[in-house]
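User: I'm preparing a small set of examples for a lab meeting where we compare how different chains pack in three dimensions. I only have the primary sequence for this one, and I'd like the structure in token form so I can line it up with the others. Please keep the answer compact; I'll paste it straight into my notes.
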Amino acid sequence: MGHTGKGRVISTQFASNVHRLASLKKAADLSGRKIAFVGMSLRTYLEAAWKDGQAPFDPRELIEAEDIDKYDPNELLIVTTGSQGEQRAALTLASFGGSRFLNFRNDDLLLYSAKVIPGNEGKVMDMMNRVAGLGPTIAMGRGECLHTSGHACHDELEEVLRLVKPQHFLPVHGETAFLYAHANLARESANVQHTSVIRNGQMLGVAPLRSGRQYSSLGSMSMLGEVKLTPFYNDGENGTGTSEELAVEERMRVAVEGVVVVSVAVTKPKPSGSSESEGDGKEDQNTLKGSIRITTRAMWTDGGRLIVEMQKSAEAAVRRMPLDVTLLQLERTVADMVRRTCLQYCKKRPDVIVTAHYATPDEEQEHFRSVKNKLGKKKTPADYRRNSSGSSRGGGSSRRGRRPSTPKD
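Assistant: Understood. Below is the structure token output for the 409-residue chain.
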């Protein structure tokens, strides 16, 4: 392993494998090392086993994680969670330098006493690469003779089936191909007459055989039906819900496509004949103007060139709008133009959020009066801001009923 026995020994494994914890404690005792856990679930499983009388040693013999640095490194064996690269596990946090209790040193030896679960290869290797960059010696792989599978082999599975002699066998846990292989083993090697392999959501009913005779194709079990399962997601420690409730698809889209936030300060032309309009041309007196501010997140902007193009398209969209346009209509038009510009420039479809407002208080008050007259309701500026604040997201329905329209003469 290239380790001389000097420095800390750090091992990672599944927290639920209490039998392996016993092996580690025995190794620590034989080498004169004290043992410490870094990872909440390790202590949780050990204490649960202790209460049940199955623990290999008293949890009180453990060194507290916050006291690790107080001991001689040559006398420490540290056990951590995170063998599968779990995001919030102790070993993963330590690989980023973000653990409160474990900071790797050049003389550390890390024993990877686990097998990478299929699908986790990328996460685990990324984690181990980060750990290697921090200096420890790593012992990992079959050549180090550190790990043996905790799953039963073919002969052991066959022995259990022959000892139990089930009338019906339902294999669980594992890929579908593994389940069918296990069911075939039961039929061919243990002479089990009835085997079933079911999918997630399928329900089997269990009932005694009538006079020892089979009354269904599944023997003592019958298919009751199938329920539609809804996947639930966990967002850290606080949020749990469906894909729609946690906006999983939107998050993925934002991560890939990015976000554009556009603020538009609208200025209406001054009435002809006013002192402020004397310098304006005829075209300026019939078009809106917009002061555009654009912010992007998680996007490539080509050194700011994309932002310039988006700003040009947004300004052009504002100039083409009629003078009596509502802020909601303006926001939707600007958002559409910005999306098209992004698609043409970089083939991206970002989420575009547009908020429009009038540049001066007088124009804003004039707009409020115009809206109030059109709706035939008394609305305050605060009411209108509240309604228009969600316009870029498609708006929301009012709790009050709409005023019935009257026929025109």
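A couple of notes for your slides: Residues 214-218, 388-409 have pLDDT under 50 and may be disordered. The longest strand covers residues 259-267.

User: Perfect, thanks.
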